[in-house]
Design brief:
2 copies of one chain form a homodimer. Chain A has 7 helices and 5 strands. The first copy, chain A, is of the alpha/beta class and 197 residues long.
Chain lengths: 197, 197
C-alpha cells in the first residue's frame, strides 16, 4: 500500500534525509512511502515538472499523509493543502499530523492577537478567526474527517536531525500506527466510504 | 455557466456584501456566481455542514475563481487553496486573482527576511524559499496553468467597502474579463483540456 508523504519537509536543508527517514518509517509499518523529492534530481528548477511529478505520485498513492505543522504563519503549508484537496477530491484516504498542539485560534492569537468584540473572534485586520477548536482551517480538518482520517498531534522531542519540529516525526509515527491498525482491522480494504460525498 | 467564488472574503466583517458584489459582477459578465456564505444562515457554527455546502457548490460549478490575495502570511488562505486543489482534481477550469503584485519570494522577504547563502534562498528558519517569480507556492500556480487558467493581479484602488484590498475587486474583474473572452472564443466549450493530466 502506497502513502504519499505531503508536507513542507521538502523545504528543510536536509530534506532528502527527512524523506528517507519517513520512507523507512513507512516500511517498518508495511507501507511504501512516496516522497516528492524522489525524482527531483532530473527536474530541479522546473516548477511545472515538479508539479506533474507530485501529481503523478499522488495518483499512484492509496493514502495521503500530510504534515500540517504550521509553516510561515499560523496554518499548514499551502502546497501541502493543495495536495490534500487534490487527494480528497480523488477519493483517496487522507490523514494529517502536526508537532504543534495548539488549535488554530490559539496560533492566530499567538501570532497576531485576537479580539473578542462582537459575536466572533477577530484578528487585528478585523478578519474573523475560526473558533472550532480544530488544528487548522475547517476545510482541511473537515476533509480529513469526512474521508475517515484523523489528525495526530505529538510534541517533537529534541533529536539529531535538522528541523525535527517541522518534520514532526513523533506525530507522523502516531499517524502510521493508526493507519496500520485500521488497515489491519478492515482486512486490507482501503477504499474510502462515500460518507459525506 | 457557474463560477465558484473561493477566497478569504468570507472572513471580512461585511462578507455578505462582498459576496453580493462579486455575484453581481459575475452577472454583468453573463455568469452565475456561487458564494460560500449563500447557504450559511442554516449552518453557521457547524463546521462539517459548511464544508459539505462548499463542496456541493464546487461540484455544481463549471469554473473556480480563487482569491489568492495573501491572508495571515505570505501565501493565500489555506481554505481557498484546499478548494483550488479540489476543483483542479475534479477537472474544472480554475483561475486565480490577487491584489498583491509581489511574487512569493518578495513577500517572504518582506515578512521574514531571506538570505542568499548557498544555492537557494532561505528564510530565517533555514527553510528554502521558492524562487520561480510566481504569485505563490508552485503547486497553486502550476495547477492553474496546467488547467489553462491564469492569475490576474491588479492593485486595488481605495473605495467604500470594508477590506477592499483583501477582496481584490479590480483583479477579480480582470479575471472575469479573461474568462468571458475565452469562453466566447471557444463557443461555449468549457471543458478543460487534458494537457498535463
Amino acid at each position: 500500500m502506497k502513502i504519499y508523504l505531503g508536507g513542507p519537509d521538502v523545504f528543510v536543508p536536509n530534506a532528502r534525509e527527512v524523506g528517507q527517514r519517513k520512507k523507512e518509517m513507512c516500511r517498518a509499518f508495511g507501507f511504501e512511502g512516496l516522497f516528492p523529492l524522489d525524482s527531483e534530481p532530473e527536474i530541479a528548477g522546473d516548477a511545472i515538472g515538479i508539479f506533474r511529478e507530485n501529481c503523478g505520485l499522488m495518483r499512484q498513492a492509496d493514502i495521503g499523509v500530510f504534515n500540517l505543522t504550521p509553516f510561515r504563519g499560523p496554518s499548514a503549508d499551502v502546497g501541502t493543502v493543495f495536495e490534500l484537496g487534490f487527494m480528497f477530491s480523488s477519493d483517496k484516504l487522507i490523514y494529517g499530523y502536526s508537532s504543534d498542539s495548539r488549535d488554530y485560534r490559539e496560533r492566530v492569537t499567538a501570532t497576531f492577537g485576537v479580539t473578542e468584540a462582537g459575536e466572533r473572534p477577530r484578528d487585528p485586520d478585523t478578519y474573523a478567526v475560526e473558533n472550532f477548536g480544530w488544528a487548522d482551517n475547517l476545510m482541511i480538518v473537515a476533509a480529513i474527517r469526512e474521508a475517515g482520517g484523523v489528525v495526530t498531534v505529538a510534541t517533537e522531542p529534541r533529536e539529531e536531525l535538522v528541523a525535527p519540529t517541522l518534520a514532526a516525526f513523533a506525530a507522523f509515527e502516531a499517524c502510521l500506527e493508526i493507519i496500520k491498525e485500521r488497515v489491519g482491522r478492515v482486512g486490507g480494504e482501503i477504499r474510502r466510504s462515500s460518507r459525506g460525498r
